[in-house]
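thread: overnight batch results

M.L. [08:02]
morning all. the overnight job finished for the chain we discussed friday. pasting input first so we're all looking at the same thing
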Amino acid sequence: MNQETAAPEAQLGHAFRNFSVRLSPTPRGARLARLLVAEQLCSWGLPVDPARQIVAELSANAATHGRVPGRDFRLTMYVIGSTLRIEVTDTCGDLPPRPQHPSDDAECGRGLALVEALGDRWGWGPGLRPHKTVWAEVTVVRQGGRT
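M.L. [08:03]
and the structure it wrote out:
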């Protein structure tokens, strides 16, 4: 289910935009998260990257490390002012995210390093048991130069 809420600019002086979707913790679910985010950001008039890459990494982590059979992960994205916040919530709260330092020839283990490099801030927090949420924030400029 997709949910979007936008407050009228005339009432608040700025828009609050929200998008949230539950996806299966599979490679297909992670790919769909990336595609949905690109479409949503375009509809909001915001640049797709680096948010698309951040979502790809966090969703892949939820599908790989936070996977519990039969339990979806949730992707939430919202914009307040010039900050885009991306949150991925999975149902494996007992495994906090840990950035790795892979060897140069390793084929995996760089996801959180990419999130850290592409985002302005990132972190994680426990949710209602058994959930955890990994988040990242990016400063965005609306297409046309406005924030």
